[in-house]
Fold:
Amino acid sequence: MPELPEVETSRRGIAPHILGKTFKAVEVRESRLRWPVAAELAEVLTGQRLRAVERRGKYLLLGAEAGTLILHLGMSGNLRITSPQQIPGKHDHLDFVFADDTVLRFNDPRKFGAALWTSADPMQHPLLAELGPEPLSAEFDAQYLQRRAGQRIACIKSLIMDSHIVVGVGNIYASESLFLAGVLPTRESGSLHREEFERLVAAIKTVLSKAIEQGGTTLRDFTNAEGKPGYFKQALAVYGRGGEPCRTCAEPVQHLKIGQRASYYCGRCQR
Structure:
């Protein structure tokens, strides 16, 4: 599943090609995504100028003159820049065509993504209104996270993956952040001390910032007509390395499931 760094990389990849341009047409080949694509989307968007390409959590927000197109990549979706001459593939469900014939193509093999239009404030949309703060914002700090943790007995990994607490800390980055902070993923949220919250918030910001930076520098191509945008592979510290030596202490990395999600940690480096 595309996580926050991948979505931010997507935003940065497509923005230079479409920002400021005018929608000429919208071609909907498959409207049955996670939520149906509105039948009037093409009529609404045509003729509008794209004023902003933003992100909120894992949602991309294409701000036009009369409203906002909310895009979500679902489990396996991606966006790429192409041209009308490029024949769409089986899972290329949406084309947003601009006046200069630049095409933003939405590909979604599993059809769990979304393309939703709102003429109201997008931040008040039901999908966005209850989201927690952005993890890289000043609002997300140790004081905030400690307050939200309170006396909760839910494990700390589940807490930081809750989008109502903080957005965009997906499974991979939760494991990596907890390792960097030296905190076991199974710890009760309310058991952490202030110093541990300080380390954890700093770790989340560091891990996500590095992932975004790496994505921006190793992105294969958002204009490759032959294939799909290339997300980045990273040298992960613990995630996906169950049984392998910890990169810090050489103890085997442990693996368990928390909330039906794979979790990885080092029993020596994390407490």
Q: What stands out?
A: The chain has six helices and ten strands.
